[in-house]
Hints:
Blueprint (H helix, E strand, L loop, with lengths): L2 H43 E2 L2 E2 L2 H7 L2 H4 L2 H5 L4 H8 L7 H30 E2 L3 H6 L9 H12 L4 H8 L11 H25 L3 H9 L4 H29 L3 H6 L7 H10 L3 H29 L12 E2 L7 H32 L10 H12 L7 H30 L6 H8 L7 H13 L2 E3 L2 E3 L3 H26 L3 H9 L4 H12 L1 H17 L2 H6 L8 H9 L3 H24 L8
Helix pairs in contact: 1-15, 1-18, 1-20, 1-21, 6-10, 6-12, 8-16, 8-26, 8-27, 10-12, 11-12, 12-15, 14-15, 15-20, 16-27, 17-27, 18-21, 18-24, 18-26, 20-21, 21-24, 22-23, 24-27, 26-27
Amino acid sequence: MTDASGRAIREGVERRALAVLAVATAALLLVVFYYPVGTVFVESVVVDGVVTLGVFAELLRDPFYFGEFARLFAGENPLSVGRDLLGSDRRLGIVGFTAYQAALSTVASVALGVPAAYLLVRFEFRGRRTLRSLTILPFVLPSIMVAVGFVATFGRSGTLNTALAAVGLGPVELLFTLEAIVIAHAFYNAPLVARVTTAAWESVDARTVETARSLGASPFRAFRDVVAPQIYPAVLMGAALTFVFTFGTFPIVLALGGFQLATVEVFVYRLVRQLHYAEAAALAVVELVISLSILLAYLRYEARHAVRSRGARTLPRRPLLPPAPTLREVLPRVGLSAYVLVAAVVFVSPILSMVLASVTGGDGALTLDHYRFLVDRQRTGAAFQVRPWPAIRNSLAFAVGSLLVALPMGVVVAVLTTRRYRGRKLVDAVTMAPLAVSGIIVGLGLLRGLVFGVEIGGWRIAVAGSIAIVAAHAAAGYPFVVRTVAPGLEGLDRSLVESARALGASRARVLLDVELPLVWPGVVAGAAFAFAISIGEFSATVVLATGTDAYTMPVAIERFIGRRLGPATAMGVVLLVVTSVSFVVIDRLGGESDGL
């Protein structure tokens, strides 16, 4: 083979490399996400080899799941049903209660998130940038670890009741209540609302506000008529995402509410453990339809009402502590002080309480007994018992495996969704669907499909539970790689790409030599997210790890918390350290990024 022919083959491969990567990514997405979700749908409509909607019909007419609305599906008079819904003894059912707690969680998250956005956008103070960066915490901290922190804070002997007893006040019973679940959900989702609202608020052009003020508008009217219409879509986006996330809640409700405050997701898990797969699949499909309907309704609203500003000059920030504040300046700051106090209880105390509980004995004295318990369990624990080192080892191994899958998938999808071509929005929606689908659904689909085995051409193909866990983690993590890499690719100077192409570089060579080096911080940040999300993933893992030794740190915490809080908090601290160190180490390799 001559040099010229070899070069021609190499150039041909490079020209087609991106297309090949796109096809490979689509096939992988089909295997790790769409096939499992499709399996759940098939399980819900195919029973004993017969296509039927009977399982859905039974669900819809069952008051246990749909409360008073089940009577509507059974054909009763809507007026009679509506009258009973307004009564004090109305029944919501599992689906109704799930929507109710999601609505309350959404209100609480918006109520905590919007003031945080106001604080970050309108005031300048030391640590503002750090505080803004901390709004990324919901995407890093494992939910089961946060649940342990809330148990340590709001439990009968938790830090809250200890503090109240110190000042002579009685105990507060919050654990295993709806209020505890709502507060825990606000911990996760208020920073999300704050982040998206802050981004929208910072894009408001200060010149439009100045124009309104020059025409005689009061500060309130300028805000109502100019600023508010531009931040409403962001607030609604945060609310819609919060509702979807809390409607599909699982670890927090399982730890803080148990089955007495069970949501749809908890019952799907319970049905899976009881081997009622058809009913579990049908209930999961109902949950998926409701979640996607909420997101679709929001996207339709955004398409009609979103306001976008180009070349905007951001609103000026005022000092949080002016040297000589007037009464008009003091009042908002008093309100912000009260907000900071509430936010400290909601956002800071659970983590600190978990750390404190891990080194505190039953008599309130400092001790390392809980950590010694973990060491003893590792040395002498029976084969069927959860041990710390296998949990840590499995978590790290699964995280590395999912990173190797999620990172190239995310980069390829980011490239595809930042190119100008017909159907790009459809590709973006299809590839971002994992954000709206719960881990329980993906885990159930992988369990019933690839883990149990698939018949293809007379051959039965099955994968180990550990491989399925890596697939589920990759499906959960790669959208975050996309959201950190895509903004950098969108903002690149296209003349650099065009110059490289004019000099004869193939599309793949331009991507490798020009584009990715310029957005490398975003790539590394995406890798950090994918790694941390895998370490903390619980929903799919607990389904796929049941009855196996493939348990992870979050699964170990869930099993400990049902027996002894002390070891659960110690394991939570270990998880916190491993997650934080992993995130920091990976993130340090590539610098900072403003993605997500």
